[in-house]
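Supplementary notes (optional reading)

For those who missed the lab, this is the record we used. Protein: DUF868 family protein. Length: 319 residues.
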Amino acid sequence: MRDVISCFSENSVNVSSYSSSCSTFSNNACISPTLIPSIQNSVSSVYKINLCTQKQLLITITWTKNHSNQGLSVNFNDDNDPTAVIFRLNTNSRFFRKKKSSKFLESGDSKMELFWDLSNAKYESSPEPLDGYYLVILVDSEIALILGNMAEEIVAKKFKATTPMAKSSLVSRREHCSGNTLYTTRAQFCETGDSHEIFIRCSGENEGLKNVKGPVLTVCIDKKTVIKVKRLQWNFRGNQTIFIDGLLVDLLWDVHDWFFNSSSSSSSSSSSSSSGSAVFMFRTRSALDSRLWLEEKNVQKEKDRVNFSLLIYACKTPT
């Protein structure tokens, strides 16, 4: 019996007129180096934590940035859970003393400890630091999550080697962007896979494109085109399937408000500064989602594998 990936890979190009497998990427780079991508306003990562005590919880790490402020928030459990514990840190330079500290939180029968140092954190266009920082979270005396290039060194110094380490998995990432219709980010679709560079661009018919009527949506991974949607004002919602690191990945888009944002004309001036938001989602598909049956030995493996989704909210500001 062949596995699901090999079965699908033979027909991946025929999933739709725009789909392609990684082996058939276009060799043409889809983004001009002179274009400036939109700005990330916030980045949220959701981690599934499996404690040694068999307890499970979700931890959401959110980095935000605007014209006057920059911050970090940590949410335990679900955003929709009214009992969720939220910790917020303002990392503005005026509060430099708070950039390195610790915090103890308690919720029900759970005790959480946070340790962080953002005093030497390095940033680029994203509110999420690249390096020079650490964030360590303990839940019920277990190391639940460690983030940052300095985290492992701090864990070795602060905690005993016998301190239990929970299993953490990144299950989703949510990014809010604003600016033009060019977006760039990076994503790792499975724990053992590589980090991939993702470009999303909506180009207009006045940009020198031949034989193209109306705007075109182009999605590139590692500078190679994976899908291209023409006449986007008519195909403003849709989905395609691609292969990344041997995984089936569903790509969904909804750019309706870019073309038909009715609220901008009736809303107040403060809320009409935007000409609409689009939504893009990359979501890995498990073999259980792809076929009705599996070999018994592969069923548990698929249940244990953590699916990943990347959700991008793209706000296009008027020019």
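If you only remember one thing from this example: The first helix runs from residue 4 to 9.
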